[in-house]
Automatic annotation (TrEMBL):
This is Zinc finger and SCAN domain-containing protein 20. InterPro entries: Myb_DNA-bind_4. The lineage of its organism: Eukaryota, Metazoa, Chordata, Craniata, Vertebrata. Residues 7-95 form the Myb/SANT-like DNA-binding domain. Pfam families: Myb_DNA-bind_4 (PF13837).
């Protein structure tokens, strides 16, 4: 399978990326890391094992684009616009649903502290984690 820099990702390639991305250790590493080149090199190697020939930069770009598109659709749905959709929304929702979001909280002395909260959790789904 030939995949160059200008080539679009096929549905099979995206599914392979999502399958690697959905692994718990990958999700953990991607969440807490700003300098994540090493993680994407690992993801590219894993994709090669699955027959997908993409370099780490292509994997990182696709990851970022999918995440952006997911958040755009999620925001639209939360605003009441259910007409906006994307192909792998449900797969991405399963991966990103419990991703902690860093928030700043003001303390009494005027300083801010960072806390992590989880989006879209309910008592029934939290117990399954």
């Amino acid at each position: 399978m030939e995949s160059g820099a200008g080539k679009h990702w096929t549905e099979e390639e995206v599914k392979a990326l999502l399958s690697v991305w959905s692994e718990k250790n990958i999700r953990k590493q991607l969440h807490g890391t700003l300098r994540n080149k090493g993680i994407f090199i690992y993801i590219a190697k894993r994709l090669q094992e699955l027959g997908v020939c993409r370099d780490w930069k292509q994997c990182r770009a696709k990851y970022k684009n999918l995440k952006y598109e997911y958040r755009t659709v999620k925001y639209a749905h939360n605003s009441g616009d259910v007409t906006k959709t994307m192909k792998f929304f449900h797969d991405l929702d399963a991966i990103l649903r419990y991703e902690p979001v860093t928030q700043l909280e003001a303390e009494e002395n005027g300083r801010c502290t960072v806390t992590e909260t989880q989006l879209n959790t309910s008592p029934t789904t939290e117990s399954t984690q």
